[in-house]
Amino acid sequence: MSSIRRRNRWVAVILIIFFMPFLGMLYLGKGRRAFVYLALTFGSIGVALWLAAKGFWPRGVGWFPLMYVVVATGAIDSYRIARRYENEFTGPWYSRWYGLVGVCVAFAFAVVCERAFFFEPFRIPSAAMIPTLLVGDYIVVNKFAYGIRLPVVYRTIVDMAEPMRRDVMVFRYPEKPSLNYIKRVIGVPGDTVEYRDKRLRLNAEEVKIDADGEYSYGEIGPGNATSARYREQLDGHPHSILIEPDAPVIQLTGVKQFPYKDKCAFDERGLKCTVPPSHALREILESLSGDYRIAMKYGHKYPSLTARSKLEKACG
What we know:
This protein is an alpha+beta fold. It is built from 6 helices and 17 strands.
């Protein structure tokens, strides 16, 4: 134990509000209390995710509100404790500046590794996956579903699994890597995928769909627009899709270059593609700079997803 002149109550409060209660309590030399607040911080996020997975979390609300309660409690607690140490304070090494800096560096490194190799949160920016995923929904993706990858260079160093039908994939748009896309996998290596006249065929067999009423976009925002909703059966597992009767099947002028485009045929009625073999698909996935799996999605009343991620289509 060594003598330190004093502790400033506002420094403690600022550390808690702008960083986290864990750091503020370390500044005050309260090691045990710091770990209690650390557990409460992560526990509050875990409770939010659990409630969301059960369908009890409001749509469009992030996982932070419960954590804010912990932060507010910690700020009040730290202010009260710091008042006792404004004249003289003795504390362990981690309450000194170099201890706090070391803890911050270690924590930042752990967070970067976690987001780079294991899990990463995303917020759905577009309506591409309505009604399964709505604009503003939050999801957590598993980044080692198909293998462990090196960040920045996006190279797989350990293969773990292959994409499967029904997987929901988050990947980076090749023409704009800062833009994340999310799609459902409908074909695996060797499959022939055909989308013609707004009906999906897989290996020459039409994928079964059943009418499921109408979907009103008023559920997610202003307006009275509606779309026909169907339940599609992919490998015996149902999911909801929307079909716009008046929208074109495909925009031929919007079809861009992509790997193995020669295995696809396009016309005004739709498209037909053969999914490349496994090794070729791996190359495509590497180029997409994304190797994620959705572990949980939340923010609205639909059941949580448990399917793994990857590619649905490359055009149109």
